[in-house]
Amino acid sequence: MPINQTPKPKAAPAKKTARRAKPTKLDAGTIQAMFAALKAGNPEPTTELEYRDPYTLVVAVALSAQATDVGVNKATRILFADADTPRKMVALGEEGIRERIKSLGLFRNKAKNVLALSRMILDDFGGKVPRTREDLERLPGVGRKTANVVLNTAFGEPTIAVDTHIFRVANRTGLAPGKDVRAVEDNLERVVPDEYKRDAHHWLIL
Questions:
Q1: What is the rounded CA–CA span in Å between residue 70 and residue 76?
Q2: Do 145 and 197 lie in a common domain?
Q3: Do the Cβ atoms of 66 and 75 come closer than 8 Å?
Q4: Half-sphere exposure of 34 toward its Cβ, with a 13 Å CA cutoff?
Q5: What's residue 4's pLDDT?
Q6: For residue 128, what is the domain's CATH number?
Q7: Is 133 among the domain residues?
Q8: Which segments of the chain have a pLDDT < 50?
Q9: What pLDDT was estimated at residue 131?
Q10: Domain of residue 112, residue span
Q11: Are 152 and 198 in contact (CB under 8 A)?
Q12: Model pLDDT, residue 12
């Protein structure tokens, strides 16, 4: 004789995850007002990384990947006390650099890059940090974002460096939405008024 079985209740249909609505793109007047307010609140923004000149800035920014500015400053105070020029850094050697920045994540790879970029600055650029994005991006450990930071902060160029934070801000606010970092950078270059471009990166990252 068959055994009566209570039918199993049907599983509830899976709820669809609600997609975040795309923010409306900001118009030119709103963008102008936004940056005017940012300037009024912080007229002279700058990086929180500690540096002495273009070379120490390149090194500090190269060390900042997956690290906080506070952590980088702690490491560079030790490093720059012994090596604050390309020649001194090369003399310090990879092991010496590694020992002084070991508080940072990825310190082994970063030490290799700092040594290699220091050698390249000496050998290819006469000991001076290059002033073009193309040449900066030739340096080991220096990508487009780092190059833009150096051009902006060390040399006063109106470049806008886009990191993950600025990428999110630009997309979530509708300021300069884009599918990737380069698209956001290009859109920021297009929509940020010229008078605010030099400081835009610093305002948006704070």
A1: 10
A2: no
A3: no
A4: 17
A5: 53
A6: 1.10.340.30
A7: yes
A8: 1
A9: 97
A10: 54-153
A11: yes
A12: 57
Residues with catalytic roles: 145, 163
Looking at residue 48, the DSSP 8-state letter turns out to be: S
- Lookup result for tokens 């912080």: 42
Q: Does one domain contain both 61 and 97?
A: yes
C-beta of residue 25 within 8 angstroms of C-beta of residue 177: yes
**CA distances in angstroms from 181 to 5, 14, 106, listed in the order given:** 58, 34, 23
Q: What is the pTM of this model?
A: 0.84
How far apart are the C-alpha atoms of 22 and 138, rounded to whole Å? 37
Backbone angles phi, psi at 157, to 5 degrees: -80, 145
Q: Is residue 110 domain-resident?
A: yes
pLDDT of residue 205: 87
Residues 137 and 187 in one domain: no
**H-only helix segments in the chain:** 28-41, 54-63, 69-82, 86-100, 107-125, 133-136, 144-153, 164-173, 181-191, 194-205
**pLDDT computed for residue 25 by the predictor:** 87
Structure tokens at 27: 């118009």
What's the domain count of the chain? 2
Q: How many CB atoms lie within 10 A of CB 66?
A: 10
- 57 closest CA partner among 129, 124, 109, 111: 129
- Is residue 24 a part of any domain in this protein? no
